[in-house]
Amino acid sequence: MKILRMIFLWLMIMAALVYFHDHWVGLSMQPVLEHQLADAFDMPFNIDGLKISLFPPGRITLKKIECLNPREFRRPQHFVGEGVTLFIDLPALKRKCIRIKKAHFKKFLFAVETHMNGKESRSNTFIWYHHMGLDEDDDPSMNFPKQDSPSSEQAAAEAEARGKWRVMIDRLELDDGTFVYDDLRLPKDERRWIFQNLKGFWEGFDLIPGYTSPEFREYIELEGTFGQNPPARFAGKGKCQFSDGNNFDLELSIEEGSIAEYKFLLDGLPGEVTGGRFDLRSRGICHESNLRSAHVLTLREMKFIAPTLRQKILKYPFGTVLLALESQKKIELEIDVNGYIGDPKFRFFSAFTKAFRKSLTQKAKAVLNEIKKGTTMVATEAPSHVRDGVGQIGNLLNNTFSTLNPLTVLGENQRKKDEK
């Protein structure tokens, strides 16, 4: 009987070890992983519910992982993942390769915040980007020639021989994601861009130190909503090569967006926009941070309220502008935004806003000229480096319609200055 009891007790202990192994090992590894991630990102990390599976080997789950912003930022969290499951290729570690065969996030939040710190612009993403040295050039000894470069496997073998790690993510899946961008640089003009309910995948990430792929080998596809009042339908897909920097060829679309929610695009109009909808179709190609993007923006059923007392004092020709913009059920604009996104002074949203205002101004002129002939599609390209402002649209319209000849080419003098 004693032998049977000993065997039974041994089986119970083994069963407990197997059953609770994931939890015990994960619990012991949590503080270690938090410390390692904090050192890597230069930002605090919290991990909850880490489990490392014995069967199947290489399966890691986390109840929650969060990266916290420094106190200078308004939002406490930089990014948060919930219900995370990772499948790690353990044998690849022997070859100095961190390979995640599959990563799955039930929920994920990524929040970017930019504000002014004295006279300098400060972003939470730049903290870890700079800390990791991603804004620095690679070690010259690790730079493979762009011409006659080796295959990815040959480059990986050479990187391994030099003690460098390869990082691979075969596939990353997202069930419910949120991306928020808060621009707080102007306290009286704070702006927010928000994407929610994001569902999709990203596959093919392969980071080899010093190696640049001759082709886009990654692919990303997402769908969800944009904005909140009301949320618009969003979809995006295309090839990319984010492992080598800013390289992508993406198509994006937004349908049934609210103009009133993003009315700061129309700052300077002689009257406040109170309603309307927009659709946006975009194609962006970026190679080694050189961006060329084309956008078709469709505005529908724009509505305005009467001009303010200040606008009346400034003698804006409000009736004329309303006739040009509010009378059209649909206004279609073509907007190009080009530039070098590696330049810290280049900001895509600001560049898009300037190009949008210029295109809308040209459209108002075209509608006035063709009011009896129907609408006309007008294409406008932003300046190549998107550095010179085109002024507020209200000022342009006021200068134009106050001239003796109402059909004078709109903003011609301003356009020439911009081109210079």
Write out key terms for the chains shown.
26% helix, 8 helices, 420 residues, single chain, 15-stranded mixed sheet, disordered C terminus, 15 strands, elongated, alpha+beta
Q: What is the CA-CA span between the terminal residues? A: 98 Å
**Beta strand %:** 35-45%
Number of strands: 15
Task: Return the domain count.
Answer: 2
Helix content: 25-40%
Our Rg estimate from Cα atoms comes to: 27 Å
Low-confidence stretches: 310-318, 374-420
Structural class: alpha+beta
Q: Output the number of helix runs.
A: 8
What best-fitting shape do the alpha-carbon axes yield? elongated
The SSE string, one letter per element, is HEEEEEEHHEEEEEEEHHEHEHH
What is the mean predicted local confidence, pLDDT? 76
The profile of the biggest β sheet is: 15 strands, mixed
Plain-language structure description:
Helices cover 26% and strands 39% of the residues. The chain has 420 residues and is of the alpha+beta class. It has a 15-stranded mixed sheet that branches. The protein is elongated and about 95 Å long. The N and C termini lie far apart (98 Å). The relative contact order is 0.07.
Please describe the topology of this protein.
Elements: H1 2-41, E1 45-48, E2 51-52, E3 59-68, E4 77-88, E5 97-117, E6 120-123, H2 124-131, H3 152-161, E7 166-183, E8 191-207, E9 218-226, E10 232-240, E11 248-258, E12 273-287, E13 290-304, H4 309-313, H5 318-325, E14 330-340, H6 348-369, E15 378-381, H7 393-401, H8 412-419
Parallel strand pairs: 5-7, 14-15
Antiparallel strand pairs: 1-3, 2-3, 3-4, 4-5, 5-6, 7-8, 8-9, 9-10, 10-11, 11-12, 12-13, 13-14
Helix pairs in contact: 5-6
